[in-house]
Design goal:
The structure holds two protein chains of two kinds. Chain A has helices at 50-57, 86-92, 104-107, 114-126, 130-143, 149-153, 162-174, 192-209, 220-226, 244-249, 254-262, 303-307, and strands at 6-16, 23-34, 39-43, 66-68, 73-76, 79-80, 97-100, 180-184, 212-217, 229-234, 237-243, 313-314, 324-325. Chain A is α/β, with parallel strands linked by helices. Chain A has two domains: 6-96 and 178-335, 3-Layer(aba) Sandwich (Rossmann fold); 97-177, no CATH class. In chain A, strands 7-8-9-3-10-11-13-12 form an eight-stranded mixed beta sheet, sandwiched between helices. In chain A, strands 1, 2, 4, 5 and 6 form a five-stranded antiparallel beta sheet that branches. Chain A is globular. Chain B is an alpha/beta fold. Chain B has eleven helices and twelve strands. In chain B, the strands form two sheets. Chain B has an eight-stranded mixed beta sheet with strand order 6-7-8-3-9-10-12-11, with helices on both faces. Chain B is globular and about 70 Å long. The chains are: A alpha/beta, B alpha/beta.
């Protein structure tokens, strides 16, 4: 089997809260791999730690109040990014691992033209001349499907629509041909028809460049359409991890099942009556529940769930470790009885 | 758009227009400022107890329409009737009285609630304004409202920032219900919420509708959410309704290519689902300068698109019972 491009092991990123009332354990022991050329979808609701995970990979978490705990491993091609000296880390950021955020307009600098912002990455990382870098920027804009790229390169972010800004962000991220693209909710701020365009674009560029994508989203539909494998996060942990087809066909964690059941679907007949919603709400990161963090909302929870935190257990499908679930039901499947 | 033989509509909107002038002129001199045609001649009716879903992408004018219907902004032309009252003709006092029958719930509950008012004060305020209850009676009603929207009584002492997004939206709904309206405009009420919480709020809205016989205008960009809650659906594009019909028919067999494209673009949580075949090119044109002819023609993938589409605006007309579309080719099923 090929070596993973990115190996994250036991990543813990904590924040000291403003009023000193405690420590928010935003990311609390997250492990996953990203293989070359694949798309891993990282799904979860707000507050589950998915964005902090992305920022922690590139050590972009503001310190203080945040800090990545010792013992966290973020191995990219054999180097631990969590302990890499700053100069070496800078060479990785933007060049080998690039980031695209949700709000493209907020991530672009309003006082420089789009073309110059794209060119800057090539000047910094590849030591191109500004002239050559600007030409590269126009090429990149053409590649991401900007109409009239030479003219668009001379425009400022406020002159572009949200969809066009996101294309510019993607052009900027890909200018150095990174091996890994981290896309944090790249289509959430966009309309559905533009979202479809951007997802198609990412798929096309991935096929062309062979890069891996870590796709972070709350939208199960986006993940289903784009990811090869999926990791579901809840309360700072990965609670279920599986190949995409397997996860959607055979979700095993009650949280994954609840999420899938609670989304209204455009392709299914209208459900009669109530949506099967998950009761309650996501707990606060300063006070995760003891035992399994999902137990207060879980319809199957019993004494063990309240006392003992389940480790990732193998679901026994495919290769070992292909489908893992943090749930005690895997040891006592007879408890999975339908509840009224 | 007529509504067949059903009961008389509770809400009727006819030819509603709202344009915004762009203040670009220098001391009022020079050429007239460009106008944003946010809502450009919209008509629909909603029967008592019915939910009309209004879908469209950002900038299509759906939120402007929502505000114009309850007269939070003054439309430029058209008629709005709610429970027989001509909303746009009412004088302020009468309008305030009518507001007891129609309320609006916004997308962002954090922005819609006064940060300095506790939940109790926020819910008691409409009761006082409309002189419905005071003192112990108001306290009793606030408690009943909280229970009805599924919130603990002890949340009454909290401020909005102490609540989660889902709790805030429940407070927003409770506040709208305080005056016991018949008609609720829901402007993207679950868009800012996480999926598990959105499902809870959608269930709550369905329950309240059943219990209180409410009539909803439900505005959203998410077609799946609208499919779940709406009886009928209207699709807006560039300030106009381009298709409207019974939810089941519209989703099963859309008659307007824009509706078809929206449905094809909506992500489906199933990796085995047929991949989207139809990726619409380009973006919605600016409502400052809508294209001539059919406003959708520059992006339209319809195989029969021709010169007429570029010059003649298609009329919104009934193409099947209760189902209207504004496409020159709407009579031929795609």
């Amino acid at each position: 089997m090929t070596e993973p491009l990115l190996r994250v092991r036991d990543l813990r990123t904590y924040f000291v809260t403003a009023h000193g009332s405690g420590t928010a354990r935003a990311v609390d022991g997250v492990s996953f791999d990203v293989y070359p050329g694949e798309t891993l979808g990282l799904v979860g609701e707000s507050g589950c730690g998915k964005t902090v995970t992305a920022l922690s990979i590139l050590r972009l978490v503001p310190e203080p109040p945040g800090h990545v705990r010792p013992g966290s491993l973020v191995e990219f091609e054999g180097r631990n990014l969590a302990t890499l000296p700053p100069a070496e880390l800078r060479a990785v950021r933007g060049r080998e691992i690039a980031l695209v955020f949700q709000e493209p307009r907020a991530s672009l600098n309003p006082v420089f033209t789009v073309g110059d912002q794209i060119a800057e990455a090539a000047v910094v990382h590849e030591r191109l001349s500004w002239r050559a870098a600007r030409a590269r920027a126009v090429e990149m804009l053409a590649l991401v499907g900007m109409p009239d790229p030479a003219a668009q390169a001379g425009r400022y972010p406020h002159q572009l629509s949200g969809g066009m800004c996101q294309r510019a962000m993607i052009a900027m991220a890909l200018v150095c041909r990174p091996k890994l693209l981290i896309a944090d909710e790249p289509t959430t701020a966009l309309d559905v028809t533009v979202q479809a365009q951007i997802l198609e674009l990412l798929g096309r560029l991935q096929a062309e460049f062979g890069m891996a994508i870590l796709l972070i989203t709350h939208d199960l539909g986006v993940v289903a359409g784009a990811a090869d494998r999926v990791a579901v996060m809840y309360a700072g942990e990965v609670v279920e991890q599986a190949p995409a087809r397997e996860l959607f066909a055979r979700p095993l964690h009650p949280y994954t099942q609840g999420l899938l059941a609670s989304v209204p679907r455009v392709d299914a007949p209208r459900a009669a009556g109530r949506l099967p919603a998950i009761p309650g709400q996501v707990p606060a990161a300063t006070a995760w529940p003891p035992g399994c963090r999902f137990h207060p909302r879980c319809p199957y929870a019993w004494a063990r769930c309240r006392a003992e935190a389940p480790p990732p257990l193998d679901a026994g499908a495919g290769e070992p470790g292909a489908h893992t679930v943090r749930c005690w039901l895997l040891t006592e499947p007879q408890r999975r009885t339908p509840r009224p | 758009m007529t509504h067949g033989a059903g009961p008389a509509p509770l809400v009727r909107v006819e030819g509603l227009v709202k344009h915004f002038a762009r203040e670009r002129r220098w001391f009022g001199l020079g050429p007239p400022a460009a106008r944003v045609r946010a809502v450009d001649g919209v008509s629909f009716a909603i029967a008592p107890g019915e939910t009309l879903g209004l879908v469209g992408e950002s900038g299509c004018g759906k939120s402007t329409l929502a505000r114009a219907v309850v007269r939070l902004i003054e439309p430029d032309a058209g008629r709005v009737t709610v429970a027989g009252e001509d909303v746009l003709a009412l004088r302020p006092r009468a309008l305030r009285a009518l507001r007891r029958r129609m309320q609006i719930v916004f997308q962002d509950p954090a922005g819609a609630l006064d940060p300095r008012l506790t939940v109790r004060a926020a819910l008691a305020e409409p009761l006082a304004i409309h002189r419905l209850a005071r003192g112990a009676e108001a306290a009793r009603r606030v408690a009943a409202l909280l229970e009805e929207v599924g919130l603990d009584a002890d949340l009454a002492r909290r401020y909005p920032h102490e609540l989660s997004g889902g709790q805030r939206q429940r407070v927003g709904i409770a506040r709208a219900l305080a005056v016991e309206p018949q008609f609720l405009v829901l402007d993207e009420p679950v868009s800012a919420l996480d999926v598990s919480v959105a499902a809870q709020v959608l269930n709550l809205l369905a329950e309240l509708q059943r219990r209180r016989r409410l009539t909803y205008l439900f505005i959203a960009h998410d077609l799946a959410v609208v499919k779940h809650i709406a009886d009928r659906v209207a699709v807006m594009y560039l300030g106009k309704i381009v298709e409207a019909g019974p939810a089941a028919a519209l989703y099963a067999a859309p008659r307007h290519p824009y509706t078809a494209a929206l449905l094809a673009a909506a992500p489906v949580p199933d990796p085995g689902a047929p991949r989207r075949r139809l990726v619409l090119p380009g973006e919605a044109p600016s409502p400052l300068a809508p294209p001539p002819g059919c406003p959708f023609h520059p992006r339209c993938p319809h195989p029969k698109k021709d010169a007429r589409c570029r010059t003649d605006p298609p009329a919104l007309r009934e193409v099947a019972p209760g189902h209207a579309a504004a496409c020159h080719w709407a009579e031929e099923p795609a």
